[in-house]
Amino acid sequence: MIVQMGVVINRKLPELKSHLEDLPDWRKFPQYSVRELAMGVIFIFIFKRGSRNNADNTVRKGNFLQNVQKVFGCRIPDTDTSNLLMKTLLPDILENIKLLIVQKLLRDKTFARWRTQRNRYCIAVDGTGLHSFDHEPYPNCCYKDSMNEKRTYSSSVMEAKLLCSNGFSISIMTEWIINDPDNITNNKQDCEQKAFSRLSKKLKAALPQLSICILADGLYPNDTIFNICKNNNWDYIFTFKDGNLKTVWEEIKSQKQDKNTINFEYIGIEDSKRCDYSGFYCNNLPYKENILHVLETNVKNEKDINCRFVHVTNIEINSTNFKEISLTGRLRWKIENEGFNEQKNGGYNLSHKYVRKSHDTFCNYYQCLQIAHIINQLNTLSVEFKKRLNANANESVKSLLEFAISALFHADFDTIIIQSILDKNCQFRY
Question: Which of 262, 292, 321 is the endpoint of a domain?
Answer without folding.
Answer: 321
